[in-house]
Amino acid sequence: MCIVNATFLFCFSDFIVKIASIDDADWRNQVNLAFRAVPTFKEEDEKFIWTVIASVLHLGNIEFVPSADQENCSVKPSDDAVWAAKLLEVSENDLWQALCYRVVAARSEVMRTGHNVETAQRGKDALAKAIYERLFCWIIAKVNEALAFSPGINQKSGSVIGVLDIYGFEIFQENSFEQFCINYCNEKLQQLFINLVLKQEQEEYQREGISWQEIKYFNNKVICDMIEKPSRSIIASLDDACKSPGEVTDKMVLESMNEHLKENPYFKTRAIDEADKSLQFQIDFRIKHYAGDVNYCILGFSEKNKDPLFQDFKRLLFNSKNPLLSNLFPDGAMRITEITKRPQTSASRFRDSMNRLVDILTSKVPFYIRCIKPNDNMMPFLFDDNRVEHQIAYLGLIENIRVRRAGFAYRISYDRFIKRYVYYKAIFDFKLDNIFLYGTIFVLSLC
C-alpha cells in the first residue's frame, strides 16, 4: 500500500518522541479490531481507510520544480507522486495537472493558469487536509449509523447520548492559527458553561424565590465577540484580507486588527502598547483569554485562512475510479464552466461549525467532566499546586460549586418523582391537568 520504511514529511517533526509503552503496530491492530466491532464497517471499508491515509502521506512528500522564470512549476518525478496517484485511483497526469495548474471559468471562457512552487505547495497541502478531513467525517458518519435508533423506535421520543472530547487550551512558545482556533473553541464552550451553569442557574433561583447570595463570575462573552463578530473582530479582519484584491500581507491584517480593536482591553499589540517588550512589533498580538494571556504570531494567518482547495482537486477526486473516494467529493460534479461563489475561509467555517455545535449542546442536558492537569512534565505522582490552582480558577469551578451550594443540587422531574412515590394512591384521585406538578406538591405536604 505504501513504501516500507519511508520517511513521511507529514509525520516528521524536529522533536521525535518515542514512548516505550506504545507500540504503533499493536495500536494499528487494535484500530482494525475496533473497525470490525462496528457492524456498518465492511472489510472493503477498512481497506479504503488505510489506502486513503497512505495516499495522504505520499501526497505530503511530493515536491515541485520551478520553471526558468519561477512563475510556473512541475511535479518532481518521484515514487511518492506515482504512489499518490495509484492510491487515489486517478491518472498520474491528471493528478500532476491539478497540482500545477488551475482552471478558471469566466462566463463561457475557460482559462488555465500555472502555479508557482509556493502556490502549488499550499494547494497540495490543502488537498491532503481535505481528503483526511472528509475521510474522518465519513468514519464518524459510519459509527453514528451503527449507533442510530432502530427503525421501530420513534426518534423524537428517544434519547441521545453524545460525547464531546476536545483539546484544552494550547499555549506554546509560538502560537499560530491552529492554536487560535483551538483556544477560540474553548472560549465558546466556556461561554456555554457560564450560560447554562452559572447564569441560568442563578436566574432560576431568583424565579423560584430561593434565598441565596449572588455569586460573581467573569462572563467571557466580550472575548468571544471580539473574536467572532461579523464586523470589527479578529475573524472579520482575516476575512476582509482574503476578499481584498491583490496581495495582502500578514502585516496588513495585523494593522486592521489594531484599528478595530485598539480600545478593546482583551487585545494588545506592540503598536497599541509600545512599552510591552514581550510582543514583537508587526508580528505578535495578544488575546487575554479567560484561561490566561496568549501571544500569537500573525505570520501565516492569512494564508492558512485561505486554505486553497481549488475546484480542480474536487473534480479530480470526484472522477476517481474508487467509488467510496468519489462519493466524498460530490462537489466535484460541477462543470468547469459553472461559476461558484467564493468559498468560505477556514476561520469562517470554523466559527459557523462552533455556532452549530453550541446550538446542539444548548438543546441538550450537559454533564461536564473537567480534567485537571497535575503538572506540565507528564510525570506520575507529581502535583504542581500552582498549576492546579490556576486551572481551577479559570475553569470557574469554585464559582460553580458556590452556585450549587446556594441552591438545590439534586434535581428530579415531577413525573419521575411521582413514579417513585406512586404508592401514594391518593394523588391519582385528583382530576387535574398538571397531575405530576400538583401530585408532587401533595406528596411534599405530607412530609
UniProtKB/TrEMBL annotation:
One Pfam family in the UniProt entry: Myosin_head
Transmembrane regions: none
Superkingdom of this protein's organism: Eukaryota
Chain residue ranges for the region called Actin-binding: 354-376
GO molecular function term, any single one: microfilament motor activity
PROSITE patterns named among the record's database cross-references: MYOSIN_MOTOR
UniProt cross-references to InterPro entries, sorted A to Z: Kinesin_motor_dom_sf (IPR036961), Myosin_head_motor_dom-like (IPR001609), P-loop_NTPase (IPR027417)
Keywords (A to Z) from UniProt: Actin-binding, ATP-binding, Motor protein, Myosin, Nucleotide-binding, Signal
Listed GO biological process terms: actin filament organization; actin filament-based movement; determination of left/right symmetry; endocytosis
The keyword ATP-binding appears for this protein: yes
Signal peptide positions on this chain: 1-21
Domain Myosin motor: start-end pairs: 1-447
Gene Ontology CC terms: cytoplasm; microvillus; myosin complex; plasma membrane
UniProt family annotation: Belongs to the TRAFAC class myosin-kinesin ATPase superfamily. Myosin family.
PANTHER family according to UniProt: MYOSIN (PTHR13140), UNCONVENTIONAL MYOSIN ID (PTHR13140:SF713)
Protein name as annotated: Myosin motor domain-containing protein
Organism: Soboliphyme baturini
Taxonomic lineage from the root: Eukaryota, Metazoa, Ecdysozoa, Nematoda, Enoplea
